[in-house]
Known about the structure:
This protein is α/β, with parallel strands linked by helices. Helix content is about 50%, strand content about 10%.
Amino acid sequence: MDKNKYAQKSIDPATQAMLSKAEQAGVEVAWERLEKQEPQCGFGLLGICCRNCNMGPCRIDPFGNGADKGICGANADTIVARNLLRTIAAGAASHSDHGRDVVETVLHAAEGRAPDYEIKDEEKLLALAKELKVPTDGRSKQEIALDIAVKAIDEFGTRKGTLELLGRVPPQRKERWEKLGIVPRGIDREVVEIMHRTHMGVDTDYVNLILQGMRAALSDGWGGSMWATELSDVLFGTPKPHKGVSNLGVLKEDEVNIVVHGHEPTLSEMIVRAAKDPQIVEFARSQGAKGINICGMCCTGNELLMRHDVPIAGNFLQQELAIITGAVEAMVVDVQCIMPSLTEVAGCYHTKIISTSPKAKFPGAQHVAFNEEKALEIAREIVRIAVENYPRRNKEKVFIPAEKMEFVAGFSVEAILSALGGSLDPLLNAIKEGNIKGIAGIVGCNNPKIKHDYGHVTLAEELIKQDILVVETGCAAIASAKAGLLLPEAAAKAGPGLRAVCEALKIPPVLHMGSCVDISRIMVVAAAAARALGVDICDLPLAGAAPEWMSEKAVSIGAYVVASGIFTVLGTVPPVLGSSNVAALLTEGAKDVVGASFAVEGDPLKAAELIVKHINEKRAGLGLA
């Protein structure tokens, strides 16, 4: 068996071991499906195919030997821009619809219709109320929460013409958006307008199209995603730093293993509660198990590990591999990043795939409809299904990799401020003095086109060597957790300045800030730092990176991060190269328009060089050495 071929696919030893087991068992996983797709459609990779009406599909010849326009007359610039916008619309809709679900849960809890949920962080509730000018004197937390939830739900189809949380944006940034006409008006409105503008015969100006894409993305970053983060904290508690364990080694041979996978904390929080029910625990013991082991996967895992001691089994490309261990009784899924292949892989083992959302059903899965009004009752039903499946486990098929790693997670904005004594001043002073050169946010998915976890871990390691503090969310954060970078001891790998700061504060050089919607936490810190210094966000020594991105959500995130003024490096190329004008606008022209731009660099070592160069330029602009 050629072990080297597994090392070419992932740097994670647990993943390599499971790829070998999958091959021996004849179970197909994402990497094999990628190989079967090659060579991938060249027109699609360049973004120059259009299916937006039934005169087509049309495609533009990138070599100039064939069609240079679609049947309607749309050229490469228009087609590429329209395709990019539809991707942003899907990504913004996904994250913001997640936000809507959280808002509605708070609304129903405040109304008494969802009795299993309660307001766990009253302090944050009151802080939000003050920010939103919601009265608090003599009122219960339910009454306050109800007013906030109503304000939040109105954001999706707002008549006010602007979003509530834009008050956090530095005035220089908001003024720039106003001049460009991209201040987001309402979350749903911006997504709908994208779909209208990209319909046949509407907007054909690629610059105008890209600006609307940024506007919709901003409605996600400063609207839907931010509301998801803020109200998840109110409902489930604002994260504080605590230790956890990551990687496939967290699965247990002698317990019922339930993997919760997806993005909705409203479901996973209830699963955690149900698994602690003494009657259900006793039922598990009656089935021969020593207990019930809840593990997270992807961003549901991030949500849980930010607030509980629930271990995380892995990130996006490990979801099939968790099943292939043969030790998972149930994988409970809701929405986003769930591979349709899971039911097929589970068919080779005893694992049950349990879908829960009306928005996401999977042929071959058992569907248990989740309802907030009976949340805990339904969660108990799901856990019981998993427990009943334990005796069906085939011990001969069980192989759990030994690899697991401790980490520290839970660095919310509030936790960071607490560690700094209640103010950003110590952090800003460390940046001014040069102990911390700047901050880089590494976010995003896994993509089998890139060696699993390599882009995330290598980039983080290179940046901390250069005294750049790294903050992470999503699958990138899980990669760093498995590599040991989320431990205070990892400061030994950092440059002398960052190492000293980390040792003084007893924090890791890479901070886990949550799930992919929690990039909003990074934006809040960036905006607060800019306001404290009296500058725009684009003037700060900040950078973003998505080394292994693959989803439409990542495109929306990248668009709102750049539109907010933060230079961002992508590890995989978006389908825009079919238009030199669109590509130039995103990588060069955007800098003059919004103060930041994209770069694409698949080599994380070279990506680190780009980020270091950018941060040094921003330091010089602020008069810092």
